[in-house]
Amino acid sequence: MAALVLLSTGPKVALAAHKTTKSPSSASSASTRPSTIAQNPYLGAIVVDANSGKVLLEDGGDKKGYPASVLKLMDLLIILEKIEQKQLSFQDPVTVSAKAANTGGSQVYLAENETFPMDEMLYALMVKSANDAAVALAEKVAGSTEAFTALMNKKAKELGMTSTVFHSVHGLPPAAGQEDDVTTARDLSILCRELLKHPDTLRYTSTRQRPFRANIEKRKIDMLTHNHLLGHLKGCDGLKTGYIARAGFSIAVTASRNNQRVIAIVLDSVDLKTRDARARELVEKGFAALDPANSTSKEKVKTHTAKK
Question: To which CATH superfamily is domain 38-305 assigned?
Fold first, then answer.
């Protein structure tokens, strides 16, 4: 399928082949692993009509990269499905294990044996992008992070995310002996379309600020969203950002205007400012493609159906 490029992207560089390394501590492995795969302005990008799945714009939509915390959208999807199937409840208690409490990166500083309702943990997952909450939720739902990762890959296969493999529940860089989470902009757009079928999704992803552990003043955390397009891009109400040093900055954005909704993915951008600027541009061009009468561009836009 030919790519339709309507973005002012500048020079692009092909993604270096990623080599899976079972012993990353070795000197030879370290020397061949790239320090970052992020590109200027991004590794890959895509915009789709959320209702029909038609691809409105794409540029490197099938290039494989690392999603970082954007993969937490799959965590949310699996849990919301189980809640709707009555296998779980928003009020189910989630007890924190030692493993969850010791998970680094973005977090809400969970302590071992603390317990919170699943609803609160989902806000921590989506608003704060809390890695400790991701582990605690995974263990609650599936018994272990490994079992939950298997659920993630099973769901990805069911959705037709053919270039995606998950190895973690949070998107952090892999530890020694582990492998990278891998996906594409196209696959992430498929995930986002599926997630938007669940009404509770936007309740979490549109939240810009929320307290966590509000009843304990000394340990209360004021969670602030990492999605700076919320409140600054017309109609934007989600979805998720991600960052690790080896992948740069990624974002899955959705916005709704005049009963139309678009999903835009920017994968592995060189910096936060560029990522957000390109995501904003993609959303605007997506809406213009849906309603050419409102477009200031003289260029005709073709559409085609996204793979599933």
Answer: DD-peptidase/beta-lactamase superfamily (3.40.710.10)
